[in-house]
Amino acid sequence: MDIKEAIGIRKPDIERELLKSFEIVRDERLRNAMSHLPSAGGKILRPALAMISADAIKKGEGKRALAFGISLEIIHNFTLVHDDIMDNDDLRRGVPTVHKVFDNATAINAGDAMFALAFNVLSGLDVEHSVLREILADISSMVIGIAEGQQMDMDFEERTDIAPEEYLEMIEKKTALMFINGAKNGARIASAPPEVYEKMAEYGRYMGLAFQIWDDFLDLTADEKTLGKPVGSDIRNGKKTLMVVYALQRLEGPDRERFLSILGNQKASDDEVKEAIELMKKVGAIQDAESLALDYADRAKRALEVLDDSEEKEALLDLVDYVIRRKY
Question: Mean pLDDT, the chain, as a whole number?
Fold first, then answer.
């Protein structure tokens, strides 16, 4: 079974329960702001990962992981709402961002409410109380980690001396933690033993790292219509992606000065953004980042050797391939 089919089977339940979760909010404007991004679509990788991971341990357990997956997706969307405000992005998933449709204050409020809603949904998880406490601890630690990763990301904008290891720590917190939790706790909900769900956490970690590096790669190489947001926005926002970190380590003299004059320039023209991309290519920054993403993808696949062969294992393997071949 490939990942497209595995997600497709679960998609109706995920989308129904995701949108249903917002019905608890009585204020119409707030409810519409909260559901704006989820209603626009999305890859729903995180809830699907949780459900598939559970089914990979014991077929049929994915349904029990649904509430957990929905809580992950709500948290993911809440971080996107706030990230778009911080980055002042106009588009997300091909539609105007929440703060553009409503306003900054409403978008911040919607994100806060989504954060709380995620824990409300999680409280209905059908597991032993001891397991629920462990999952709650993991999720709350995850959200703190995401915030730390976001702060690192923002702090990096003022620095030009970032080491690749710092970047990898940042994306592990900001992105990979959610994949770690999806795979690990999906398996734990299905009563996987610790040695198995910790391997699933390893799978999620490497896949999450590959996912974010590839996401940054797409910001430079995809077309705007496919990507659903402006290409090169990371350059204009001064984001220190792995490609930028490599470039700043390797560029010298006039090339480095020119690159720095474009990086973080909100008014940079499309031609200037293209020039910055060419400078990164010149020193192999983009190529090496792509290679590392592929290496992490291989490590993620090896972690799945802990699982017995099944359709769900095949889907999890295919998900890794999807992460590093997607176009948006």
Answer: 93
Q: For the segment 281-324, what is each residue's pLDDT rounded down to a tens digit? A: 999 999 999 999 999 999 999 999 999 999 999 999 999 999 88
Q: What is the pLDDT of residue 223?
A: 60
The pLDDT, as a whole number, for residue 328 is 53
**What does CATH list as the number for 3-323?**
1.10.600.10
Of 17, 16, 33, residue with least CA distance to 25: 33
CA 11 to CA 188: how far, in whole Å?
A: 21
Q: How many CA atoms does the CB half-sphere of 109 hold within 13 Å?
A: 12
Of 191, 243, 184, nearest to 217 by C-alpha is: 243
d(CA 177, CA 51): 17
Could you give the count of Cα atoms lying within 13 Å of 41 in the half-sphere of its Cβ?
Answer: 8
Mean pLDDT of 257-284: 94
Residue 68's Cα: distance from chain center in Å? 16
Alpha helices in 40-102 (DSSP H): 45-57, 66-87, 98-101
Contact (CB, 8 A) for 200 and 186:
yes
